[in-house]
Amino acid sequence: MSGRLVHVGSAVVDYVYRIDALPAAGTEKTASAYARVAGGGFNMMVAASRTGMKVVFGGQLGTGPEGDFLRAAFAAEGIETLTPPSPLMDSGNCVAMISGDAERTFVSWPGAESRLTPDMMKPVQAVPGDWVFTSGYTLSYPGSRDALADWIEALPAGIPFVFDPTPVIADIPRPILDRVLARTTWLSCNTNEAAEIAGAGDAQTVAIRLLGEHCRGAEGVVIRAGAHGCLVRMADGGTRAVPGFEVEAVDTNGAGDTHIGAFVSGLSRGMSPCEAARYANAAAALSVTRHGGSSAPTDTEIQEFLTERGEATTAPGRAEATAT
């Protein structure tokens, strides 16, 4: 049975506008659709929850309409919040513009999720069997990065810690990033983020440098490549390129979050890393065929998708060979 996912990242309210293309400077576009939805780390939590993990949130939600909206969304997905509402401010938000090619552009406004103190983190306790996750967003905020890095470093040695640096990686001070990478059990990042940490090169070369120079205590790294799938590199030297699935994408918002949530959920249930990566590729593929960032599929939907593609998952715990 899988343990809890203790998510100590951030959640915000997304204001999503669908447009045919980004407007040129000084011009205006009329959106074809609009939605107000829970976003940020919520998308990853939903993916883990819908695929079998119990999820708890140890970050900060605000006091005000945005925080209330997020708490209602958490409750609807059965996600417990461990910390009381921030007395300082409301939760932040993000304007997401989804263009006709299914790509997205963001403008964000930080709120309560950008402020963490040691006292705020006291109710967040990881216990044996738990998996802990955070993202680069919370580490990029000056008001939260130090408390969160201290908390991560103090995690008991046997608790796996998963880290996604996210597109804001350049905003994380290198000393903070190095401390978090040193405690990372699994790093999941896209090709640009991997290169930001370890320098340019092909995915396998960068993965080797990530493990050898930056995440020395990790079990492995996953480098995501969108529709092309991902590369899994293990600390023991095994490498596997896990191909993606061809689908008709309508909205790529939240695909990376879905991939990470499904990957962690798969690992927690005894899948091998490559099996969990295939499972995560399928989850992300399904998510981009639906509108909304929190469009993660259920375990049943993923298994049906894999069966249709002739790639049903093996039994949990079954070993899978990797090529080097």
UniProtKB/TrEMBL annotation:
Entry annotated with the keyword Protein transport: no
The source's superkingdom equals: Bacteria
Query: Does the keyword section mention Transferase?
Result: yes
- Domain Carbohydrate kinase PfkB span(s) in chain numbering: 5-296
- GO MF annotation, one: kinase activity
Q: Which UniProt keywords apply?
A: Kinase, Transferase
- SUPFAM superfamilies in the cross-refs: Ribokinase-like
Which Gene3D superfamilies does its entry note?
A: 3.40.1190.20
Which PROSITE patterns does UniProt cross-reference here? PFKB_KINASES_2
Q: Which residues form the signal peptide?
A: none
Which protein are we looking at? Answer: Putative kinase
